[in-house]
Amino acid sequence: MSIKTPIISVVITTYNQPEWLSKTLLGYQYQTFDSFEIIIADDGSDERTKAVIEKFQKQTGLSIVHVWHEDRGFQKTAILNKAILATRSDYLIFTDGDCIPRNDFIAVHYQKRKSNSFLSGGYFKLPKTISDLITEADIETQSCFNPKWLLNLGLKKTFKLNKLSSTGYKEFFLNKYTVTSATWNGMNSSAWKKDILAVNGFDTRMQYGGLDREFGERLVNNKIKGLQIRYSAICVHLFHLRGYKNEAAIIANKNIRAQTKKEKIIKTPYGINQL
Question: Which of 13, 118, 244, 251 is 20 to 30 A away from residue 111, measured at CA?
Answer without folding.
Answer: 13
